[in-house]
Design goal:
0% strand, 53% helix, single chain
Length: 36
Amino acid sequence: MAVVFRLTADQLEVLLEIDKRASGWKGSPEEAFDYR
């Protein structure tokens, strides 16, 4: 998981979008990742 945090913001956004679609997440990225 540590490797993920080395990615650029753009790459991270893409990964989050893929993860949301794969998991069927209906909320916003801010709600899912409110630590950002």
